[in-house]
Design goal:
The protein is an all-alpha fold. 78% of the residues lie in helices and 0% in strands. The longest helix has 28 residues, at 47-74.
Amino acid sequence: MDLTQTFICITGLAGHLFIAEQDRRGYWFWIAGNLAIIKLSLGDGHYGMVGLFVVYTLISLNALRVWKNKEEEEGSDHNPPSGPSFSSRLKTWLDIFRQISERNFT
């Protein structure tokens, strides 16, 4: 797997993990990954994929706007639930991903 694919996988997984923890930074990970996919898809002539990931990016940007507006209405930032630290869970997921990516499935 090349560096770009690794970046896309990590940003996608990190985005899901952050959103699962009710942390809006997950959308920024998704946006970063989406932009990388758009760049690759443009280079390969996959214009349907470009359109799809442009829409995904717009949805993420809208979600960030809605989240911010909701926080302003409530008068405070949303605090994610307590429990094991997010960084320790992210490290675990990245270790699992690394182990999977190092396997030779041929």
